[in-house]
Amino acid sequence: MVLCRAPLSLFIAPPANNSRRSFMRGRMVCLSDGSIEESQSSKKSQLVVSITGATGFIGRRLVQKLIADDHMVRILTRSRRNAQLVFPDQRFPEIVIAEEEEWSKCIEGSNAVVNLAGMPISTRWSSEVKKEIKQSRIKVTSKVVDLINKLNSSARPSVLISATAIGYYGTSETQVFDETSPSGNDYLAEVCREWETIALEVDKDVRLLLLRIGVVLGRDGGALAKMIPLFKTFAGGPLGSGKQWFSWIHLDDLVNLIYEALRNPSYKGIVNGTAPHPVRLSEMCDQLGQVMGRPSWLPVPDFVLKAVLGEGATIVLEGQKVLPVKAKELGFTFKYPFVKDALRDIISSGST
Fold first, then answer.
1. Using 50, 70 and 90 to split pLDDT, how confident is the model at 203?
2. Record's Gene3D superfamilies (predicted)?
3. Mean pLDDT of the region 217-232
4. What Å distances lie between residue 251 and 31, 214, 335, CA to CA?
5. 2 near 30, Cβ under 8 Å?
6. Separation CA 273–CA 255 (nearest Å)
7. What tens digit of pLDDT does each residue of 291-314 get?
8. Would you give the distance in Å from CA 98 to the centre of its chain?
9. For every residue of the chain, which 3-state class applies, written as one string?
10. Which pTM does this prediction carry?
């Protein structure tokens, strides 16, 4: 038997005998005579997961993990062409890529939806960019929630994991935040509040996880990808005062957290996606310098960052100490609880 890339309608059409859930979880295979049937392997454990933001830094790794573990993935995208550049048919024949008009059918045939879509915030904030940052999150989340809610209760996914961010808490050099902490008063806190409010409108029969994500560390994306070149040229150092808190998480730990939440019904409500040991940014830079064998003594002044990022510099010039209390209560095991180990892995192995 060989896996086949079946048309979208094949994956989403439920059988007449109303055994939709077992049908959707089974792997579709092509037989030698050209007919198609459901594989008997992993029927009970295989998931069908629809993902927005699948072509992003986090989404790419999540898709790879799901495929490696023999789950089925549907990529909800605005551009099939762009998605195929990241996930070409030759390498990912089992993935279904769906543009917006097909999202509803994909979601109907899924066990779970993971919502990761949103414009990156580490850029210069003009009034137009700030509006787009907010709308890119709210618009997609609203569409996903609306599509889920319009389905019959028997056809809805059982879980929605919707990304949000630790920017919800605002910034502080002295406070410690966990999932019970109130929201802050700045722009990012406002974005996160509205983002989460939309997600909370999903039908109560759907298990909802709001994942407040910290600074994700990986070689080929996020903040670290911008810092590594500076350190390579001996120009790395603390950003701003260096006293601000840096609440981080290794990309692999974040993906594992999402993966566990897909399968474990105890994961619901608000969960902080951060490592258990946040550090001051100066320590983060010292550790990165040590791992790379480069000095980290040359600080980047506030005015330089503000010149490059404008108001967006608040992401790195201010910070918050956020603890993953809920994840630890649920028994989640972090592979990289300490930043030095995370950086060593990323730099030495070329982790993406």
1. very high
2. NAD(P)-binding Rossmann-like Domain
3. 74
4. 38, 10, 10
5. yes
6. 10
7. 888 766 666 666 666 665 566 667
8. 19
9. CEECCCCHHHHHCCCCCCCHHHHHHCCEEECCCCCEEECCCCCCCCCEEEEECCCCHHHHHHHHHHHHCCCEEEEECCCHHHHHHHCCCCCCCCCEEECHHHHHHHHHCCCEEEECCCCCCCCCCCHHHHHHHHHHHHHHHHHHHHHHHHCCHHHCCCEEEEEEEHHHHCCCCCCEECCCCCCCCCHHHHHHHHHHHHHCCCCCCCEEEEEEECEEEECCEHHHHHHHHHHHCCCCCCECCCCCEECEEEHHHHHHHHHHHHHCCCCCEEEEECCCCCEEHHHHHHHHHHHHCCCCCCCECHHHHHHHHHHHHHHHHCCCEECCHHHHHCCCCCCCCCHHHHHHHHHHHCCC
10. 0.83
Q: What pLDDT is attached to residue 301?
A: 66
Q: Is the dihedral of CA 198, 204, 206, 212 positive or negative?
A: positive
Residue type, 206: V
